[in-house]
Amino acid sequence: MIWAAVLIASAGCYALKLLGHSLPTSVLNRPLVRRSADLLPIALLSALVAVQTFAGGQHLGLDARVAGVGAAVVALLLRAPFIVVVVVAAATAAILRSSGWLS
Amino acid sequence: MIVRDSLSVGVAVGVYGLSFGALSTVTGLSLLQTQTLSALMFTGASQFALIGILASGAGIASAIATSVLLGVRNFLYGLRVDRTLEVAGPLRLVAAQLTIDESTAVALGHDDPNHGRSFKLGFWTTGLTVYVLWNLFTFIGAIAVSTIGDPRSLGLDAAIPASFLALLWPRLTRGSAWALAAASAAIALMLTPALTPGLPVLTAGLVGVIAAALGVDLATSTPLPTPDEPETETSR
Known about the structure:
- The complex is a heterodimer.
- By secondary structure, chain A is mainly alpha-helical.
- In chain A, about 75% of the residues lie in helices and about 5% in strands.
- In chain A, strands 1-2 form a two-stranded antiparallel ribbon.
- In chain A, α3 (about 65-75) runs antiparallel to α4 (about 80-100).
- The longest helix of chain A is centred in the middle third of the chain and has 24 residues, at about 30-55.
- The radius of gyration of chain A is 19 Å and the shape is elongated.
- By secondary structure, chain B is an all-alpha fold.
- In chain B, about 70% of the residues lie in helices and about 0% in strands.
- Chain B has 12 helices and no strands.
- The longest helix of chain B has 29 residues, at about 115-145.
- Chains A and B meet through α1, α2, β2, α3 and α4 of A and α1, α2, α3, α4 and α5 of B.
């Protein structure tokens, strides 16, 4: 099943790239096309941040992930590079868990 | 100069590959599945979305849908770069695969009247550098963590939302982007108890499309042409 997801999603992403190279540039003059492609990642990524921080299955709750993402926000405000942001989040959650303060 | 820009972008991005390879492996994908994503999908946000949603226990349909929807912006980049690249045949198939945030941004940053020579050089050197380094670092990251036992004890379940946040952050350039992000996050959380995992995120994606239909515009957040650009003018 994971292979199906990997291959179908890869094919879909490539098809979108190729479609862009195949259609006339004038498609860009449609404001809805341009704005949708601009806003869709913001909507999807922010929803992913929220769900992956607070949800476990269909339940919402607070655990060490929240502190990890909070630390990631601080790292981003300090203009840390991507890899540092990710490591800071993981380390914060790991330390809080091993100390027993948060699950 | 262009080559130096391309290489520095490539190296910076390649290092994200390290976190992708590591996270993909700990969320349960095999080394081959992880490497296949970097080789065939080759677009970071979509790759992180696919592994994150699969790890959360959602069905593969919503994982595929979210991943592909995050790739829609590459469609736009293709529209923008194809004419100046002047590629045809098999080379166009390769150019399509290399059409991502970074190659498009460097190419557009070197848009010149010189028959697009710097544009082409910027696109190809950045695209190829990122491709090679992204795949190399994916492999290193995946190998490095393949011996880890419990991902939670290392806080890797916090690293996944943090990586989405780091991908989102540079797009939050305006108040309207923050408002959209807050609305999408709130809707996804409200729907979480009611819907199958995966669907709340997709529904929140609709909010983005609705906002676009209502005329919310963030023309400066991605390297896209503005309507008054002479090049698009001539193509009408």
